[in-house]
Amino acid sequence: QVRLVESGGGLVHAGESQRLSCAASGTTHSFNAMGWYRQGPGKQRELVADITGSASTTYADFVKGRFIISREHAENTVHLQMNSLKPEDTAVYYCHALDYVSGNRYDYWGRGTQVTVSS
Predict the structure, then answer these.
(1) Taking residues 17-28, what's their average pLDDT?
(2) 21 vs 73: CA distance, rounded Å
(3) 110 and which of 2, 4, 19, 119 could share a cystine (Cβ 3.0–4.6 Å)?
(4) What φ, ψ does residue 41 adopt, rounded to 5°?
């Protein structure tokens, strides 16, 4: 049973940095991609960043130049370094993993961690 567990959320002030981590358990292989989504108050869940097994990255426009996603394949862990945080970054951040096995797609989600950025 695959499980994703986020850590690193909390309260920070605008302009500060925070690092989120997500550790996957219950799998013996690396995922095709891992990433982070977020859902702010009154908003839909949206992609923040993701990274593939070949280290190709995708960033949402609103975090480009501020956030960095990285991955540790040996431990099936993904990190999100968030710099220059803004109040609008306040959201629940969810870890996501994507896997393809024998033509079947599997999506896994963490339970989320709250990030609150105060003015």
Answers:
(1) 92
(2) 13
(3) 4
(4) -60, 125
Token pair in block for residue 114:
């709250």
Task: Find the mean pLDDT for residues 93-116.
Answer: 95
Region of 111 on the Ramachandran plot (φ > 0 left; ψ -120 to 50 alpha; else beta): alpha
**pLDDT at 13 (0 to 100):** 98
The per-residue pLDDT for range 59-92, each reduced to its tens digit, is: 999 999 999 999 987 778 999 999 999 999 999 9
Model pLDDT, residue 74: 77
Q: How far is CA 1 from CA 5, 25, 29, 48, in A?
A: 13, 8, 13, 25
